[in-house]
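seq:
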Amino acid sequence: MILLSIVFIIIVIDIILSNSTTHISDFIGRMLSGDINYIYNIIIRKLLMNVKLFKVSIWGESLRTNIILFVILLITQKNIVKKILFKNKNIAFGFKFSIISAIFGLLLNDSGVVMAALIFLLNVTALTYLIISALEMCCNGIQKSWED
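struct:
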């Protein structure tokens, strides 16, 4: 919330003090005036750029691979993942909002594929670590089973 407030203050200062129109002040002005077509065109342009990046860049390959790995982990280790997320609400919160951030990045950023690929790379790495840790604790006798 604090970060959002700081960004808002910077945007307001930019709009008030700037003699020329900046990219963000133009966007805010059009958004406040209700220019839906302008906003729609921006989102379409950003989506098209992401589709292009998704097809031709290594980041597209990384995003596809990490989404597939994330889904495989969620399906094959469903019971362990449910237990981990139930016991650790903050981790569950982090996964949920990182996925939401990746989706918004894809929709609102020209290089959202890069952002989403990095987010899913971190999610897959973290989830893999959590699953291995749970299984290791079970195997080392720290817990009776991974369900404890």
